[in-house]
């Protein structure tokens, strides 16, 4: 339905940095389709799907679910959506996640250079995958993230001090390099995630107001 996935925003940040809360506001204000990778995985656990127990064990340990599982869930949601403006929350968590997703459905034939060099015809196909237009990074100090997660009280199996410590380590070791990658590509918008929800949204709003999304 959405062949080009034309408006495609990724939302990153540590556990409890406020990704979900701000995504809600972006959806209300700018009409995006919110896809939270964590929510999709929790839904799989609840529906007793094929991998539910492996997903549950992985989330309890704060580790990362294999890319093929998460990518398939996100892809399914994107393919069945009427709304082509995607807000992908909490994904990719690792470089491997990023590459797995961006190589999905490679679109060949964007550009075909035909070079004729001494009777040799070389076709060079340029590939374009699913790269985001914009990446938001909710930058929040660890102690604030821990406080928010432990106060949440929604019964999440990973909202306890032991798992939070593991989630923070995984964030630092595996997710920060992905954030750094997007920064080098000039796609990253760093948001100071401390303050009230509205104060934080004041930094987010202009990013969307100033583009066609
Ligand atoms: N809150 C929000 N904003 C606030 C503010 N400005 N001031 C004070 N409080 C604020 O917010 C957290 C809490 O803080 C809430 O109670 C909120 O009211 C309050 P929220 O908006 O929920 O923060 P968020 O960043 O979304 O935190 P979340 O815990 O969801 O982040 P995680 O990244 O840890 O969780 P996620 O659901 O994305 O992933 C869970 C697990 O799934 C991962 O640990 C991993 O095991 C697995 N996973 C994968 O394996 N692969 C994936 O691709 C994705 C997930
Ligand atoms: Mg969340």
UniProtKB/TrEMBL annotation:
EC number assigned by the record: 2.7.4.3
Entry's Gene Ontology molecular function annotations: AMP kinase activity; ATP binding
Coiled-coil stretches noted in the UniProt entry, renumbered to this chain: none
Transmembrane segments: none
Keywords: Kinase, Nucleotide-binding, Transferase
Record's keyword annotation contains Transferase: yes
EC class name: transferase
Family: Belongs to the adenylate kinase family.
Protein name, per record: adenylate kinase
Species: Dovyalis caffra
Portion of the parent chain present: 70 to 282 of 383
